C-alpha cells in the first residue's frame, strides 16, 4: 500500500511553509483530481496537505467592482452565487456544464484551475507520456487522439486542458492570487496555464511552495454572455469543443468581444485573433464565421481529431449568435 | 417430469397475482444495503487477490521478476505459470451446462494472446497491499510486432467479408443467388457495429472458500449451475462438493453468464493458502477480461420487385473472436426468419483478434444483425419511394419459412399499428431535412424488433410451512430483472398465499438446477417449474387432509382446490398452515422438474415488437439527440408490468448507447484506450428521451401454462436501426457504422 502523510493546516502561511520544506507534496481540497490520480498511480505524493480548513471560502465584492473568490469556494457555490449568475453568467454556465452535481459539490475553485488532463495515456502509468514522465514520448500523437488538442500543441504533447470553468474565466477576465514562501503575487488568468512546448510536465506558472488563494474576476463587462459546450452525450463528459463568449455591442456592431475556447486546446484558450476579427464588425453570421475561421487558422489536426476544427468553429459561431442575442435583450 | 397442457385455444384464466404491477420483493433489501452482493461477502481470515495483467497484446511472457513484489508488506503469495495448480479445462459445452467465458485456464501457457491477459495473481492481507505489490511485479516479454485488434482493417469494403467461414452457420432456403440476379430492384450494402462492453454496475467478484475438500464460491453470476459444473470439471471434484452462490447481481448483460478466469485463480489461491480469498476486478481489468459484444462487419444484399416484395435476401456476417476462446455471434441467423422471403442465405465468418474471448451481450447476434437488416430495409424503401413501414407490412412473415413451421403466436402487425399510431408516424415527411423546428431538424425512423422465445429444463422446490409462509427455491438467479418477484407471484397465483408471505430463494447452485439468467428465457423456464412444484406439494397436502381423521376426510382428491392458502372441498376447508400444525409437521414440500416438449418441433417461437424514434439534429453545432422512442412489444403474457416495462426501457437505453456512443477502442498498437467509464461513453440521464412502451399481453400458451415469453433482450433490438434511419430522415446522411458519432455525421 502506498503510504503518505496527511496533514491539515489552519493558516495560509502554515500551508505554504510546509510546502517549501517537503518536495513531493500535494495540496488537497476537494480531491476530485488528486485522489483519482493517486489510485491510478499517476501521482505519488509522499505528503498531502489538507487545505480545506483555510479561510478561503468567501466571495467578496471589492470596491473597484471586481469579485474576489476564495480558492476553497466550491464549484456549486460559485455557479449558484447571485453575483456570478447576474454579472458573470458565462462562468456560471461553464461550471454547470461540467462534471456532475456531486463532483461540483466537492470540487473547489482553486482545484478546478489545477485540474489535470484526461488524456488516457497520461492516466495509465504503463504508457509512455512526456507530461507524466518527460522524455518517454507521446503515445497520443500516433495513437488515438480524438479527444486531443488542435491548438497550442507541440511535438511533445497534445493533451487538452479539461476545465470548463477556466474557459469562462478567461473570457470574463480574471487574475489569480498566489501565496508563496516569498510572499504574495498576482498572475493574469490567461497567462497562468502554460503551453506544453518542450516541457509538457510544466503545466502552470506556480512556483514551488505556492498556493492559489483567490481568483479575482475583472469588473463585470456586461454585454451578452454565453458558454456553449459540445460533446457526444448530453452530460458528464469533457468538452470536445466549447466556447465562452462575452459580447458588448456598439449599436448594430460589435464593440468588444472576448472569446475563449475549451476542449480544443492545450490550455484554456483565449481566441485573440477571433476577437480582433470581430471588433467593429456588424453582429452578423458572416462576421461570426470570419471570427471562427480566424480562431482556427493555426490549428493542427491529428489522425482522429480533425473534426474538432469544424466543431470548434461551430461552437464559436453559435456562442456568438446567442451571446449577441442576449446583449440585445 | 410433470406433464403440462399446452393449448393455444384455451380460455384465459382469471389471474390474481400474475399480471399485477408488483413492486420488487427484494427492493427494500437493495435500498437498505441488505442485499448481499458477492463482493460484500467477508469471511474470517480472508485474504485479497489482485491480478497482474499483460501490457502487450501479442507475444510471449519470457520472465517475471517477483522478488520486490513478494517482499512488499502483507504479501502472502504470487501465483503464475510456474507455480499454478495443474487443472483441467472445462469441457466448455453449453448443452452440458459447463460453458465458460474463456476456456483457456489462467497461466496455462506463456503465450500472450491479448493486452490485459492475466500473467500473475498477487494475494495479500488487504486489497491495498495486493494492489501495491501487483505494481512491483516486473514482466519481460518477447513482443510480436503484428497484432490485430480491429477487423475493419482487413475489409476491402466490397465483395466477400474477411475471415474464416463457419460452415455450421450457413443456412439458406430457396435459391438466393438466382433470385437476386433476376430482381428488378437491388441493394448491396455493408454495415458494422463497434465492439461494446457490458459496463455492468456491480464489478465482477469472486470470494472462494474451501472447507476440507468442499469449495464454496460467492460470485456475481448469471449462471450458478453453469459455474458449479465448470468448476467441478476444472478441479476434478464431484458436483456436490462445489457450491456457487450469487444471491444478488448488479446487472450482467451477458458478461456474467459464463465463468471467467479470475474465479479459477481465486479458488486455486484459496486452496493453496488455506484461507478465503476475495477478488474484485477493477473497471479497467473488467473491460479486458470479462467478454464483450464483438465488433461485427455485415453485408446485406436484397433483391425485390417494384411493389417491394422481397425476392432474395443475403445476410453475411463477420465477427471477431479470440485465440483464448471462440465466440460466434451468428449475427445473420435471425434474418432467416424476420420477413416473408422465399430465397434467403445467411452466413457468418470469424476473425481472430488479440482480445479476450468475446461473449454474449444483451440480444447477442440479433441486435447486431437486426441493425443491418432493418437499416437495409429503410434504404430499400427509399429506393422504392415507399413508406418503410408499408414495405415491412408487405413482407410480413405469416409463418417461419426457415423451418416451415407456424408461429406459436405472432402479433407483429398489431405492434406496428399500435406503435405507429402512438408515435404519429403518419406525420412523417419522407424528404430528408424537411421537418424543421428552430435550429433543429427532426427525423423519424422505425424498425422491427424481435427475439427468439426459448425455454429450458428447470427444477424448483416449494415448501408450505406451518407459520403460513411458503418457501420457493430454484437454482437460477435474479440479475435485477425481477425473477424473485415473479417467482413469488407464480407461487401466490397457484396457492392464494399473498406474495408478502412467500420466501423466494435463488442464486445457489445447491438448489434444484435452474436456468441461466440470459437469452430472455428465465421467465418462461422458471414459472412452470414453480407451478409444478406447487402441484406436487399440494398433492401431499391433500393426502394429509383426506387421511382418516383429517379435516377433509373422504373428500375426493380431485374435488380439492387450494384457494387463499386453504384446501377447499365443497363447503369444507382448512388453512394449510393449520393442517400442518394439527399434524405437527413443520413443512410439506414438493419438487418438480419441467422441460420444453415436442412443441419446439411443431411451432416457431419468437417475440416481436416495433420501435419508432424521433431524433433532433442541430446542424449548426453538429448535435444529435434522440427526443422520443415509442415501442410496442408482443412478448406473450406480461407477468409483472412494472419489471417488464423496466426491461424494455433498459433495453432501449442500451440500444441508444449502441446507436450513438458505445465503442471500445484499441489504438494502432493494440492498446485498449477507453477501458473505463469516463472514456467509454454510455447514455446518461440527461440523454434520456421520452420513452413510451406498450406491452400487448397476448398469452402464448404453446410455450408454457402462463403464456409468458421473455423480454430481457427484445427492447434493445431495432433501436440502433431506428435511430440510424431517423438520422437519415433528418440529415440525408446514411450512417452504416455504429455508433453514429459526430465525426461520422460531419464527414458523411
UniProtKB/TrEMBL annotation, chain A:
Residues 1-222 form the FAD-binding PCMH-type domain. InterPro entries: CO_DH_flav_C, CO_DH_flav_C_dom_sf, Diverse_Substr_Oxidored, FAD-bd_PCMH, FAD-bd_PCMH-like_sf, FAD-bd_PCMH_sub1, FAD-bd_PCMH_sub2, Mopterin_DH_FAD-bd. It holds the Pfam family FAD_binding_5. Keywords: FAD, Flavoprotein. Gene3D superfamilies: 3.30.465.10, CO dehydrogenase flavoprotein, C-terminal domain (3.30.390.50), Uridine Diphospho-n-acetylenolpyruvylglucosamine Reductase, domain 2 (3.30.43.10). SUPFAM superfamilies: CO dehydrogenase flavoprotein C-terminal domain-like, FAD-binding/transporter-associated domain-like. Coiled coil: none annotated. This is FAD-binding PCMH-type domain-containing protein. The lineage of its organism: Bacteria, Pseudomonadati, Pseudomonadota, Gammaproteobacteria, Oceanospirillales.
TrEMBL record, chain B:
Belongs to the xanthine dehydrogenase family. This is Aldehyde oxidase. Signal peptide: none annotated. SMART domains: Ald_Xan_dh_C. Gene3D superfamilies: Aldehyde oxidase/xanthine dehydrogenase, a/b hammerhead, Aldehyde oxidase/xanthine dehydrogenase, molybdopterin binding domain. The keyword Oxidoreductase applies. It comes from the Bacteria. Pfam families: Ald_Xan_dh_C, MoCoBD_1, MoCoBD_2. Keywords: Molybdenum, Oxidoreductase. SUPFAM superfamilies: CO dehydrogenase molybdoprotein N-domain-like (SSF54665), Molybdenum cofactor-binding domain (SSF56003). Residues 32-145 form the Aldehyde oxidase/xanthine dehydrogenase a/b hammerhead domain.
Amino acid at each position: 500500500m502506498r503510504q503518505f502523510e496527511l496533514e491539515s493546516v489552519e493558516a495560509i502561511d502554515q500551508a505554504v511553509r510546509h510546502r517549501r520544506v517537503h518536495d513531493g507534496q500535494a495540496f488537497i481540497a476537494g480531491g476530485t483530481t488528486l485522489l483519482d490520480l493517486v489510485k491510478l498511480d499517476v501521482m505519488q505524493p509522499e505528503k498531502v496537505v489538507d487545505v480545506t480548513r483555510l479561510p478561503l471560502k468567501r466571495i467578496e465584492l471589492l470596491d473597484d467592482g471586481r469579485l474576489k473568490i476564495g480558492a476553497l469556494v466550491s464549484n456549486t457555490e460559485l455557479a449558484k452565487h447571485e453575483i456570478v449568475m447576474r454579472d458573470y453568467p458565462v462562468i456560471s454556465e461553464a461550471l454547470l456544464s461540467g462534471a456532475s452535481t456531486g463532483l461540483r459539490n466537492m470540487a473547489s475553485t482553486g482545484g478546478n484551475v489545477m485540474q489535470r488532463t484526461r488524456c488516457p495515456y497520461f492516466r495509465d502509468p504503463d504508457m509512455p507520456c512526456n507530461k507524466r514522465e518527460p522524455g518517454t514520448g507521446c503515445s497520443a500523437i500516433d495513437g488515438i487522439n480524438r479527444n486531443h488538442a488542435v491548438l497550442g500543441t507541440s511535438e511533445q504533447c497534445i493533451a487538452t486542458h479539461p476545465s470548463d470553468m477556466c474557459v469562462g474565466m478567461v473570457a470574463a477576465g480574471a487574475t489569480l492570487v498566489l501565496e508563496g514562501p516569498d510572499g504574495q503575487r498576482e498572475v493574469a488568468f490567461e497567462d497562468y496555464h502554460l503551453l506544453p512546448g518542450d516541457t509538457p510536465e510544466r503545466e502552470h506558472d506556480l512556483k514551488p511552495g505556492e498556493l492559489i488563494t483567490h481568483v479575482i474576476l475583472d469588473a463585470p463587462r456586461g454585454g451578452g454572455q454565453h458558454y456553449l459546450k459540445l460533446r457526444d452525450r448530453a452530460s458528464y463528459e469533457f468538452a470536445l469543443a466549447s466556447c465562452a463568449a462575452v459580447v458588448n455591442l456598439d449599436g448594430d456592431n460589435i464593440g468588444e468581444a472576448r472569446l475563449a475556447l475549451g476542449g480544443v486546446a492545450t490550455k484554456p484558450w483565449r481566441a485573440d485573433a477571433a476577437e480582433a476579427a470581430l471588433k467593429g464588425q456588424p453582429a452578423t453570421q458572416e462576421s461570426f464565421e470570419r471570427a471562427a475561421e480566424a480562431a482556427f487558422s493555426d490549428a493542427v489536426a491529428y489522425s482522429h481529431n480533425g473534426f474538432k476544427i469544424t466543431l470548434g468553429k461551430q461552437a464559436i459561431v453559435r456562442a456568438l449568435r446567442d451571446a449577441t442575442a442576449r446583449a440585445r435583450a | 417430469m410433470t406433464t403440462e397442457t399446452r393449448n393455444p385455444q384455451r380460455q384465459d384464466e382469471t389471474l390474481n397475482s400474475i399480471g399485477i404491477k408488483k413492486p420488487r420483493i427484494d427492493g427494500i433489501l437493495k435500498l437498505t444495503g441488505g442485499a448481499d452482493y458477492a463482493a460484500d461477502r467477508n469471511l474470517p481470515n480472508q485474504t485479497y487477490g489482485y491480478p497482474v495483467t499483460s501490457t502487450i497484446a501479442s507475444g510471449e511472457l519470457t520472465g517475471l521478476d517477483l522478488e520486490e513484489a513478494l517482499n512488499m508488506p502483507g504479501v502472502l503469495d504470487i501465483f503464475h505459470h510456474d507455480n499454478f495448480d495443474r487443472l483441467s479445462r472445462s469441457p466448455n459445452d453449453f448443452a452440458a451446462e459447463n460453458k465458460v467465458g474463456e476456456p483457456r485456464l489462467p497461466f496455462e501457457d506463456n503465450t500472450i494472446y491479448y493486452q490485459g491477459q492475466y500473467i500473475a495473481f498477487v494475494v495479500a492481507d488487504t486489497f491495498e497491499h495486493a494492489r501495491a505489490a501487483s505494481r512491483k511485479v516486473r514482466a519481460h516479454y518477447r513482443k510480436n510486432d503484428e497484432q490485430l485488434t480491429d477487423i475493419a482493417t482487413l475489409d476491402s469494403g466490397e465483395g466477400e467479408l474477411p475471415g474464416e467461414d463457419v460452415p455450421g452457420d450457413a443456412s439458406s432456403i430457396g435459391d438466393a443467388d438466382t433470385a437476386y440476379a433476376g430482381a428488378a430492384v437491388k441493394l448491396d450494402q455493408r454495415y458494422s457495429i463497434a465492439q461494446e462492453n457490458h459496463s455492468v454496475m456491480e464489478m465482477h467478484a469472486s470470494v472462494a472458500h474451501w472447507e476440507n475438500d468442499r469449495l464454496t464460491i460467492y460470485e456475481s453470476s448469471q449462471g450458478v449451475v453453469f459455474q458449479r459444473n465448470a468448476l467441478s470439471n476444472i478441479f476434478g471434484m464431484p458436483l456436490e462438493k462445489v457450491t456457487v452462490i450469487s444471491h444478488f447481481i448488479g446487472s450482467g448483460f451477458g458478461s456474467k453468464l459464463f465463468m471467467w478466469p479470475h474465479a479459477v485463480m481465486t479458488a486455486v489461491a484459496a486452496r493453496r493458502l488455506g484461507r478465503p480469498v476475495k477478488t474484485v476486478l477493477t473497471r479497467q481489468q473488467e473491460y479486458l477480461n470479462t467478454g464483450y459484444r464483438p465488433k461485427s462487419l455485415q453485408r446485406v444484399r436484397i433483391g425485390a420487385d417494384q411493389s417491394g416484395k422481397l425476392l432474395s435476401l443475403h445476410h453475411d456476417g463477420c465477427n471477431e473472436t479470440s485465440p483464448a476462446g471462440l465466440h460466434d455471434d451468428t449475427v445473420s441467423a435471425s434474418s432467416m426468419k424476420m420477413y416473408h422471403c422465399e430465397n434467403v442465405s445467411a452466413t457468418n465468418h470469424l476473425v481472430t483478434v488479440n482480445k479476450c474471448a468475446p461473449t454474449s451481450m444483451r440480444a447477442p447476434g440479433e441486435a447486431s444483425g437486426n441493425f443491418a437488416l432493418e437499416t437495409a430495409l429503410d434504404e430499400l424503401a427509399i429506393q422504392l419511394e415507399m413508406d418503410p413501414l408499408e414495405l415491412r407490412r408487405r413482407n410480413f412473415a405469416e409463418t417461419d419459412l426457415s423451418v416451415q413451421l407456424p408461429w406459436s403466436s405472432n402479433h407483429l402487425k398489431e405492434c406496428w399499428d399500435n406503435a405507429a399510431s402512438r408515435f404519429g408516424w403518419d406525420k412523417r415527411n419522407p424528404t430528408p431535412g424537411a421537418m424543421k423546428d428552430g435550429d433543429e431538424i427532426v427525423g423519424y425512423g422505425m424498425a422491427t424488433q424481435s427475439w427468439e422465445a426459448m425455454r429450458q429444463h428447470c427444477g424448483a422446490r416449494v415448501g408450505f410451512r406451518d407459520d403460513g409462509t411458503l418457501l420457493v427455491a430454484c437454482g437460477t438467479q435474479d440479475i435485477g430483472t425481477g425473477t424473485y418477484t415473479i417467482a413469488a407471484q407464480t407461487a401466490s397465483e397457484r396457492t392464494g398465499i399473498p406474495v408478502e408471505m412467500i420466501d423466494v430463494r435463488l442464486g445457489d447452485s445447491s438448489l434444484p438446477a435452474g436456468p441461466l439468467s440470459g437469452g430472455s428465457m428465465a421467465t418462461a423456464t422458471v414459472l412452470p417449474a414453480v407451478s409444478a412444484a406447487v402441484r406436487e406439494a399440494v398433492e401431499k397436502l391433500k393426502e394429509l387432509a383426506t387421511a382418516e381423521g383429517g379435516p377433509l376426510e373422504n373428500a375426493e382428491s380431485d374435488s380439492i382446490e387450494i384457494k387463499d392458502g386453504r384446501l377447499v372441498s365443497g363447503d369444507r376447508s382448512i388453512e394449510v398452515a393449520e393442517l400442518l400444525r394439527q399434524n405437527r409437521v413443520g413443512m410439506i414440500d414438493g419438487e418438480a422438474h419441467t422441460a420444453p416438449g415436442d412443441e419446439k418441433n411443431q411451432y416457431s417461437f419468437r417475440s416481436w415488437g416495433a420501435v419508432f424514434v424521433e431524433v433532433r439534429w442541430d446542424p449548426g453545432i453538429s448535435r444529435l439527440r434522440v427526443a422520443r422512442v415509442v415501442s410496442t412489444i408482443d412478448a406473450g403474457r406480461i407477468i409483472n408490468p412494472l419489471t417488464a416495462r423496466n426491461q424494455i426501457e433498459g433495453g432501449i437505453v442500451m440500444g441508444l448507447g449502441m446507436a450513438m456512443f458505445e465503442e471500445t477502442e484499441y489504438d494502432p498498437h493494440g492498446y485498449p484506450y477507453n477501458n473505463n467509464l469516463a472514456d467509454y461513453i454510455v447514455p446518461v440521464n440527461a440523454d434520456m428521451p421520452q420513452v413510451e412502451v406498450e406491452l400487448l399481453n397476448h398469452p402464448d400458451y404453446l410455450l408454457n401454462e402462463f403464456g409468458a415469453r421473455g423480454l430481457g433482450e427484445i427492447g434493445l433490438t431495432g433501436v440502433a436501426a431506428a435511430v440510424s434511419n431517423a438520422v437519415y430522415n433528418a440529415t440525408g446522411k446514411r450512417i452504416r457504422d455504429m455508433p453514429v458519432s459526430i465525426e461520422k455525421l460531419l464527414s458523411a
